[in-house]
Amino acid sequence: xxxxxxxxxxxxxxxxxxxxxxxxxxxxxxxxxxxxxxxxxxxxxxxxxxxxxxxxxxxxxxxxxxxxxxxxxxxxxxxxxxxxxxxxxxxxxxxxxxxxxxxxxxxxxxxxxxxxxxxxxxxxxxxxxxxxxxxxxxxxxxxxxxxxxxxxxxxxxxxxxxxxxxxxxxxxxxxxxxxxxxxxxxxxxxxxxxxxxxxxxxxxxxxxxxxxxxxxxxxxxxxxxxxxxxxxxxxxxxxxxxxxxxxxxxxxxxxxxxxxxxxxxxxxxxxxxxxxxxxxxxxxxxxxxxxxxxxxxxxxxxxxxxxxxxxxxxxxxxxxxxxxxxxxxxxxxxxxxxxxxxxxxxxxxxxxxxxxxxxxxxxxxxxxxxxxx
Length: 373
Known about the structure:
Layout: H1 2-12, E1 16-25, E2 39-49, E3 52-57, E4 60-64, E5 69-76, E6 87-91, H2 100-105, E7 125-129, E8 139-140, E9 148-149, H3 150-167, E10 176-181, H4 184-201, E11 209-215, H5 223-226, H6 228-234, H7 240-249, H8 261-274, H9 297-308, H10 320-332, E12 348-349, H11 356-364, E13 368-372
Parallel strand pairs: 6-7, 6-10, 9-12, 10-11, 11-13
Antiparallel strand pairs: 1-2, 2-3, 2-5, 4-5, 5-7, 5-8
Helix pairs in contact: 3-4, 4-11, 7-8
């Protein structure tokens, strides 16, 4: 019967399709030995077409059928007890920045410590997603699919989770948390609220939502910008004199577009000093995400010049931690050139003006929240 079906497929041109199966990554270029934890990057769809058997590596979850928008993800299974450990969705901030930033520099395995006891992957399974569409390896077949915003991108992530858990029902009973940092911290509570509403409405699959976590989160409120001044003064990056000038002359001013001349000059000086440090971690070196591959050498010089041009004391060379991600991914040859962030070259609408109401709503409903800096 199987042979007959195959022959019918061959002569009729009709394809017979088998269900999606998961894509497990067992090795990585340049990494010797077994991976510390099980890594999944998506699904494999097997198709029989004519007499050819081939694999189509989808590795994506569709979130917009009309425009063909697909989100790419990495799933690291917990190194502890995957059957009961929490599952954490993690989003990174920035303008369409690849979630590999989080994996390499934020909550991934600690360098030179394969068995690091405090690694997040030792206590939870982590789902890293390139979001919104256009970040990292996520893409849209129709350019219209890139035109998203806070609300639409958040709803796409809710749809992503529904599809992903539908294909991974064994994790539905695990405690589930939504997490993110920087600008992603603005939409995390919105996503948590939407999931909680779906739970109340009986939408399937039902996620076992327990709470959310946000680091250095944007809220959309003025305090996001105005709190930078006392913070940088408190850690010694700006002088007492500059701090006092800003506090005196910038009262009531929009820090992004001040009209007071003295305030504008003081904030210009403030931003110059701010740009000399690493914003994610002021004690770390300022990262230069440049390529060391010969074919990108001229572009690398251009990036280096642009990013270091503001510095008074230029480092002799970019630190190896900063260039590692870009260099490694470009050597893999998966795309013409991997870049960390697509800065403002794709449309995006910031239509969640403030996330405070979502923090309020979700926590009042009894869900746990962790906000850290």
